[in-house]
Amino acid sequence: MDETIDEKVEFSEVNESGVEQIILHLKDVGAGTDGLNSKLLKKTYACILSKLTFFINLCLRTGTFPKLLKAAAAYIQGR
Fold this sequence. Notes:
Helices cover about 50% and strands about 0% of the residues. By secondary structure, the chain is mainly α.
């Protein structure tokens, strides 16, 4: 079954308030592939909020995302 889906996905730009709300609701977990942990981000986001929002919107507008942000670490938890 070779089906091709020709649907275009569109993203809306974000504002500082939206980015702030996402940061504040992050779970307190260890560092990801970027080396930052959520506790540190929550304590320092105000200093970088405008630049972070600009960066996110630039990624959404251009469809270009840094390779580091495409990586994910998955852990299998034993029963």
